[in-house]
Amino acid sequence: MIAFINTDLDLGKRPIFRNLNLTIQPGELVYIVGRSGSGKTTLLKSLYMEVKPSKGEVIVNGLSSRGVRRRKIAMLRRKLGIVFQDFRLLEDRNVYDNLAFVLKVTGTKHSLIKEKVLTALKEVGLENSAKEMVENLSGGEQQRVAIARALVGNPIAIIADEPTGNLDPETSLEILEYLKKINDSGISVIIGTHDYELVRHHPSRTLMISDMNLVECTIEPAPTGTCWRPVPKATAKAS
């Protein structure tokens, strides 16, 4: 379970969230929506404790941000899969070695690495691309490698920060399909995005950043019928 309890989050001296209370249950698919610069990345970073609250606490898988030690944070991050907008792959290595590297640094037995890597690549349809250098792949393929890398350690949750921000609309939907497939297997998936059209294709719990807090919302058509916008629910604040 993930919980924010009376949490304040800041970016430098800039306040981002104030008195945030939120619970995300195991196995949920949750969208965090908001315009660029609204605080999505800060919120997601707090889940793997790169950002610490200035007040309150964040609890992830039973670990509280209050007084947490570096060793415990490292152990938590091994249980989380993180997907970035800019892929962050090792360009001097092939697809297989990008995933194997993650397992090696976390102490996975050598005899298990090949099976785990190939299984993760199969989940994103890249089992035949293991020996390809990442620089030879398309943007969509590189993001699928990044998703496989996040998946290879059997995480309890996938945290995806604008995972389709550098991709065209069609490829973006393909990436979302893979994330939805992962969620269907029982893994929590939390996606930060400013793309409301993307959310519309696989509706799920959606939280909009508003006035330094999160508001439960639905994605509905704007009056013109040509674009989409978040509509706050009557229940207002997330809980």
TrEMBL record:
SMART domains: AAA. Keywords: ATP-binding, Nucleotide-binding. Residues 2-236 form the ABC transporter domain. Pfam families: ABC_tran. GO terms for molecular function: ATP binding; ATP hydrolysis activity; transmembrane transporter activity. GO terms for cellular component: plasma membrane. InterPro entries: AAA+_ATPase, ABC_transporter-like_ATP-bd, ABC_transporter-like_CS, ABC_transpr_LolD-like, P-loop_NTPase. Part of the ABC transporter FtsEX involved in cellular division. Important for assembly or stability of the septal ring. Belongs to the ABC transporter superfamily. This is Cell division ATP-binding protein FtsE. It comes from Chlorobaculum parvum (strain DSM 263 / NCIMB 8327).
